[in-house]
Amino acid sequence: MESALLKSIIFNQQDIIQNEKIVPRDYFFEPNDNYILVGMRRAGKTTLMHKRVQDLVKGGVDWSQIIYINFEDERLRQMTVDDLNDITVVANELSNKKSYYFFDEIQNIDGWERFARRMADQHERVYITGSNSKMMSSEIISRLGGRYMMQYITPYNFDEYLTAKKIPHDQRALYTTSTLATIQAAAISYLHNGGLPESLKQINARNYLTNIYQDIYLGDIIKRNNVRNKKSLSLLINKIAQTVMHEISYTSLTKGVKNSGNPISTPISINYVEFAKEAFLLFDLKNFTSKFSERESTPKFYFLDNGILNLFLFQKDTALLENLVAITLYDHYKDNLYYLHSQKTGIDIDFYLPEEKTAIQVSWQIDEFSSEREINNLVKLSKNDSQINRFLIITKEQEKTIKKDGVKIEVIPLYKFLLNEY
Q: From which domain of life does this come (predicted)?
């Protein structure tokens, strides 16, 4: 790899970072650790690395010590793992001080983890990003030998979203009528458009999100996994979007695609879903009451960004509301989040947090039509499981306390739930 080309890439990147204005986010990096940042495309991984560079320079590090390589640069398309050491050679040419290495989307280089481990073994300071969950797999972690901290990066949470939009949301703001109305309106915008940082800068967020979806779909799923049956994959993801809020088996998903006239088998459907999960497009929840085999075969699927899910829906705010609650809970609890559906008792609960002893329902509003499912299911659950001590219903904007049959149920408006103000 030519030294002049690498220097040009490094200097160009430094110019970009130097002039970038960055919205603060809720992430902290230990100064003496190496990191791998993973998450869906455009969630903000690169911007966080840029912020880390800015902080280092403010702390006295010279720009000549900053070695930033974006492996999606088309000038590096022929680069292989054998060329990676050329980067350290260039770093030594630029400065005789300790370098700080930033490798963006390094998973594009096959065998990158061997180079990354050697860099850590040589006590270099390294930051890496990637858009595939395989980078978090036990196999990759083993190859890295525990030399890196994993940091999962999500689209903006609602707190970050409000900060980016410069909307005050401290305690004073939450109790000021005019500001509260702005926060509530922002919650609905967040519900529809999601939290991908660049979407906030767009006049037409939907067009931007469509491009991002195509990037994930075409780049991170089809090309990376050599998917040949593109139409069936597209229909499968569309089918999953239509079934948000509902458990569905892989057999049913396969049947839905086949009914559209496209050949697909259940094993292929399972593979395609895994590809979408690896690209951080989807995640799933298991039924806490089911046996292991049933948990795996009949999950509930959700999208990791509401704006992308909304591309598939038409006037389905109830599905968007449940998906947003799922995202928020998943970001906090990951594999300790479930749903409950018992054929034996008839209990149907949207979200269950066993460690928190909390059951959560989601309803656009509480009225005479929704009370039977939302309230009665929570009451029934309390009679069947005395360990659960908190019962919540998340709504668009209602807030009250319901007491029925000795059970206290808290009705929480969306904005308070998103800001953890409940």
A: Bacteria
